[in-house]
Amino acid sequence: MSDSRILVAGSPVDNIDMQGVVRHAETMIQQREKCTIFAMNPEKAIAAREDPELYECLNSAGLLIADGIGIILASRIHGVAFRERVPGSELMPKLCQMAAKNGYGVFLFGAKEEVNKNAADKLVEAYPGLQVVGRQNGYVSEAQTPALIEKINSSGAQLLFVALGSPKQEYWMSRHQEQLNVIIQQGVGGTFDVLAGNVKRAPALWRRFHMEWLYRLLSQPQRFLRQSRLPAYVWLVIRSRIGLVKT
Asked: What CATH number is associated with residue 151?
């Protein structure tokens, strides 16, 4: 757990910027100290209040990055000045850039086979020298998991990116952390789809005004059910701020 860990409306999150996360990951690899990185956003904050296992997964993580603008706004309401938002989809490329510079191997686990392969190819193209030492699509049964863990360990990877979606990736990473030899694990959700070109990120102007969530909702209506948690989070933040809810 990081020294930068604070509670925002009862949700654990680390007040750390992008550069700080990359530096921390590099230090952990050099010192061979395992670190799991999860993203925190309003949807996950509400889900964790309803799911004790998910809350434990998140709270025991090495780093919990403030992925959603809702977390940043909530922190301001609680009088905490966050350094910056750290989108998980932007952190993964930064970690790959660091890995390429230092000769660290990375392993990609998750998504469909074509998406996984295309994401790996795009990363190698973007970061010359990057060693994608292994990859595996996300269609792995419980019975096949021991073989997957052996595959990851045999690859010699220092970094593992897991794209199974939440909360499945948080469960998987937490349950198998002790069996894995990788130093850095990051849960990346749909980032492989973005890297592969299957899903477009919001235009820069939308991101600048912190409206990426709205762009994604408009372009992917199937996300509406997930986004329906946002009003519940706003209400939680308000009640937490005025002391009407135990955090």
From this structure: 3.40.50
